[in-house]
Amino acid sequence: MAGYSYLRPRKSVTLTALLGFLVVYSLLPLAWMFFSITKTQSELLSSFGLWFSGPFALVDNLQQVITHDDGIFVRWFLNTIVYVVVGAGGATLLATAAGYGLAKYRFRGRGAVFATILGAIAVPGTALAVPTFLLFSQVGLTNTMWAIILPSLVSPFGLYLMWVFSAEAVPTEILEAARVDGSGEWRTFFTISLRLLAPGIVTVALFAIVATWNNYFLPLIMLNDPDLYPLTLGLYQWLADASGIGAQPVFNLVITGSFLTIVPIVIAFLLLQRYWQSGLSAGGVKA
Amino acid sequence: MSPFLVVFALMIVTPLAYSMYLSLFRNQLMGGTTFAGFANYVTALTDPKLWDGAGRVGLFLVVQVPIMLLLALVAALAIDSGRLHGRSFFRVALFLPYAVPGVVAVLMWGYMYDDRLGLTATVNDLVGFALLDPYTKRWILTAIGNIVTWEFVGYNMLILYSALKTVPHEVYEAAAIDGAGQFRIVRSIKLPAVRGALVIATIFSILGSFQLFNEPNILKEIQPALISSYYTPNIYAYNLTFAGNQVSYAATVAIVMGLVTAVIAYVVQLRGTRREA
Predict the structure, then answer these.
(1) Which residues form the ABC transmembrane type-1 domain (chain A) (predicted)?
(2) What was the pLDDT predicted at A198?
(3) A231–chain B Cβ distance below 8 A for any pair
(4) Going by CATH, does the domain composed of A39-284 fall within 3.40.50.920?
(5) Of A100, A285, B16, B236, whose CA is between 20 and 30 Å from A20?
């Protein structure tokens, strides 16, 4: 190919169209949801899924979701926020401190710690959940908020990301220079390292937030008081109500509630994309 | 550092040790809990329900994971090639499903599969016969596979794409000067560059397949007749604990499946890294 430049290749309509199919697939359920939240219960059951139909019922649906069962949905929303802020926030703090420590300080048993943590990434979360439940029930922690928060605090994958990221983003020479200049370790961490680590921290935080926001299995086994449910478990409850035998069908509640559940997390992803994309590529997932 | 280790020990090491301890006992309605040695393990190895579920997730793994990773690889290569119109749109749009909670994903697809609420009736009317029939014994596993693929294709794409971005531009320039075409560059530079990331993505997908729980367990609310109480090993362990009160045996099932998973993941890693060397 004469005059071909790799850095500025020609755009290909065929390739764009081909990948377009994949995007349509990715967005199809979200489009279906978008149209469905504007429909009444009866229109939901009788109209074509990918277009508007009947009276515009979005406002009414939203109102029903928020007021159903004395506003339990709002309660679930606030619970989720608590789980995310304390659980995911704590997980990010711990992973950052530990990953940075492992990457920048040498100490005895460092290799063993690394091997154990890599092994822990491979332990299925669901395999831990049942014994954790049994342990918690012995100390009376089940059916409390702590039952969700405590297990969320550990993120071996987050620690791994922070480790690799710290090793690359914070040059050891800078730390040594700071030490020579008489800066204490804490001061160095807060004034120098923290800034360099920011994209990595945002990435870890975002993944921890998604994991906590979307958690379903842990609340399912730990909680039986609906007042403590996060959104996911609440929606599951409504789904069960909508499809059980002799149930009151609340399809419009389930669908509109689902929509409200994904809106905040999708917005967070879109707003922070610059960070998580650079955080991941700057060292995140290298074998 | 040390706070992490404390929480880590409490939340991961302790439950693991505890479940190993539990697996050595037997729960009986009469007579309480007695020490049983490895009897639970003997039972598990010959338990048709457990192996029914294990076979199902094994089949799922062999079919769904390659399809998903192939789609992810094609997408990552296409986005990295720079030949797409609007490539940042593609990247974000494909990744978006990852942010959707599993419960909501299953809910949307579960309703879309439905004759009345969803799209299958529309498609079937269009072609004139029952082309799509997800809620049958025959197709339900495929229907679950579709949901899982939808959730994780973008995530895997991003992992592979990040690996592609670590290749320095000079390498491509040198290849172009040497007269290498698009496909040659993909084969000789890009595929070797993503091998490590592909091994990681494969291992995560294997772990995910063996843990399969959320999707079938939620679909069960919509289609109770199609998902049994031992549909996957995890559903089996869950039902043993909470419906059957057989905590010790549930712990044994979890450990056996954990070991099977670890062995398979280890083999994949060995093979993946050996070829690299």
Answers:
(1) 77-272
(2) 85
(3) yes
(4) no
(5) A285
